[in-house]
Amino acid sequence: MELLEIIGYFSALVIGISLGLIGGGGSILAVPVLAYLFMVNEKVATAYSLFIVGSSSFVGGIKQHLKGYVDWRTAIVFGIPAIIGVTLVRAFVVPALPDVLFQISGFEFTRRMGMFGLFAVLMFPAAFSMLSNRKEDLDNTPNEVKYNYPLILLEGLLVGGITGLIGAGGGFLIIPALVILAKVEMKVAVGTSLIIIALKSLLGFFFGDALTMDIDWTFLIKFTVISLVGIFIGSYLGNFIDGKKLKKGFGYFIFVMAFFIFYMEFFFQN
Fold first, then answer.
1. Of 177, 186, 205, 210, which is most buried by a Cβ count within 10 Å?
2. Rounded to whole angstroms, how far apart are CA atoms 9 and 34?
3. Residue 9 CB partners (closer than 8 Å, separation 6+)
4. pLDDT tens digits for 10-27?
5. Average pLDDT over residues 143-159
6. Which residues pair with 64 in a beta bridge?
7. Burial letters for 190-226: b for 16+ Cβ neighbours within 10 Å, e otherwise?
8. What's the mean pLDDT when you consider all of the chain?
9. Contacting residues for 221 by C-beta, under 8 A, at least 6 apart
10. Can you tell me the distance from the alpha carbon of 8 to that of 29, in angstroms, rounded to the nearest whole number?
11. Across the strands, what pairs with 107?
12. What's the rounded Cα separation, in Å, for the pair 29 and 168?
């Protein structure tokens, strides 16, 4: 096993540990780890990331369900358009994208630049969401959930489409939508978003990528299992470590990773 692979599998463990410690965000590192340590192309990296993100979110979502923080009806209402969005993008849009999207004065803007560039751009609001001092609603009184169906449909399709293009869960988009569009309290929104991410990521992968590309199941399952083991390690370490302080540090790290991706894709290779 080469050094980069060893670092890659260790990074898979770190991804899981971060998820277990801070409750989210770690899976956004799956794409850069796959692309720069395992040297897979943009289609494969975003596809494998969907499976990894979906699996880790499912474990986290079940843990939140056991605590009573998942609104399954809301998860289904929000999840259906998101599943449609990610499946359509992975099954039809991504396979149809040409290697070179356009040219300007001899400069070629490639599919890889487009997908990873969008990924890096969306890492910024993800980082801001981790740095914000968001206070959870401590009122345990059940809220009457009201659905704005037209906006939910648009938001679900948008988030699903973005997830399909970049391979990330988009919790930083889903949680505010649940709070604003369905009036769900914050703790329930966090738990419910994990279920939505799991459903759209896994179903998008199986109905999109698994039908259109060859999957290295041995590698993918190995990477995913290591990440899941990391989640349980992180959950245990959470009994001794302040996850809120780590969350801010991880938010800054995501900023660094976003700039790194920009450099690698738009400057290093030219």
1. 205
2. 10
3. 222, 223, 226
4. 999 988 888 887 766 666
5. 78
6. none
7. bbbbbbbbbbbbbbbbbbbbbeeeebeeebbeebbeb
8. 85
9. none
10. 11
11. 104
12. 9
Q: Which two tokens stand for residue 255?
A: 């900023």
Beta-carbon count within 10 A of 138 CB: 8
- Residue 56: partners with Cβ closer than 8 Å, 6 or more residues away: 15, 16, 19, 26, 27, 224, 227, 228, 231
DSSP assignment string, the chain: --HHHHHHHHHHHHHHHHHHHHSSSGGGGHHHHHHHTS---HHHHHHHHHHHHHHHHHHHHHHHHHTT---HHHHHHHHHHHHHHHHHIIIIIHHH--SEEEEETTEEEEHHHHHHHHHHHHHHHHHHHHHS-PPPP---SPP-----HHHHHHHHHHHHHHHHHH----HHHHHHHHHHHS---HHHHHHHHHHHHHHHHHHHIIIIIHHHS---HHHHHHHHHHHHHHHHHHHHHTTTS-HHHHHHHHHHHHHHHHHHHHHIIIIIT-
* Distance (Å, whole) CA 53 – CA 85: 16
d(C-alpha 110, C-alpha 266), whole Å: 10
The β-bridge partners of 108 are: 103
What residue type is assigned to position 176 of the chain? P
| Gap between the Cα atoms of 214 and 30, Å rounded | 19
How far apart are alpha carbons 270 and 262 in whole angstroms? 12
pTM here is 0.86
In the chain, how long is the greatest CA-to-CA distance? 61
